């Protein structure tokens, strides 16, 4: 299957081509800027190193998207979704997690209308 052509890095003045938004060098810089200036401090506390370890372990044990599998497709899971959000008392236990691909995760939050503080 053909790949998408690479595009220029979004960092001003960087000539490198990349498959994502930023080249490898500038991706780390953009991520740290986001963590420092835009992300909610409470979210940062809930999703620290212990969460990253739990997420990695969960996705190793559940490699496919659960919603895609229900529709007869096998898609690699990239997100460990909390069924009950941690801000509402949910935990990082396996019973409260669901393996999803990015597409299903975005669609789920779009249906719930809770991801971007949209009023119902």
TrEMBL record:
<keyword id="KW-0255">Endonuclease</keyword>
<dbReference type="InterPro" id="IPR003615">
    <property type="entry name" value="HNH_nuc"/>
</dbReference>
<protein>
    <recommendedName>
        <fullName>Putative HNH nuclease YajD</fullName>
    </recommendedName>
</protein>
<dbReference type="GO" id="GO:0008270">
    <property type="term" value="F:zinc ion binding"/>
</dbReference>
<dbReference type="Pfam" id="PF01844">
    <property type="entry name" value="HNH"/>
</dbReference>
<dbReference type="InterPro" id="IPR002711">
    <property type="entry name" value="HNH"/>
</dbReference>
<dbReference type="GO" id="GO:0016787">
    <property type="term" value="F:hydrolase activity"/>
</dbReference>
<dbReference type="GO" id="GO:0004519">
    <property type="term" value="F:endonuclease activity"/>
</dbReference>
<feature type="domain" description="HNH nuclease">
    <location>
        <begin position="53"/>
        <end position="106"/>
    </location>
</feature>
<dbReference type="GO" id="GO:0003676">
    <property type="term" value="F:nucleic acid binding"/>
</dbReference>
<keyword id="KW-0540">Nuclease</keyword>
<comment type="similarity">
    <text>Belongs to the HNH nuclease family.</text>
</comment>
<keyword id="KW-0378">Hydrolase</keyword>
<dbReference type="GO" id="GO:0005829">
    <property type="term" value="C:cytosol"/>
</dbReference>
